[in-house]
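Lab channel / #folding
Pinned by the channel admin:
"Please post every new chain as: sequence first, then the structure tokens as a reply. Keep commentary short and put observations after the output so the thread stays searchable."

First post following the new format, from NK:
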Amino acid sequence: MTRSKVIASSVLGLLLLTAAVWWFWPQPAVVHTDNLKYIQLLRTAVSSQRVDYLDGVERSLQQRRETGGMTPREWREFESILAMAKANQWKQADQAAMRLESAQQNRRR
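Reply from TO:
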């Protein structure tokens, strides 16, 4: 095998690996337009580290879920962030909420 074929094969392999990682990397859910406000409410509760705000957001999210206004995937995203905050992992919860919010930009709903 010539040197150029080895280099081409290596580059192709790297591109395929990069594409596979990107494809299978877990991404936050796309939140329905009606549920976008809950991301902001959750971010406010988490960034202020207010348990009372967090409880109110959780009640609102549960009510939304029970009335069928939220998909199971959306609920899992919110529930995960709520769990982090309840475990006093405020920084991680804030980062997760920011990732969820930024994932909504330029995404099809």
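NK: The mean pLDDT is 86.
TO: also worth noting, The chain is about 75% helix and 0% strand.
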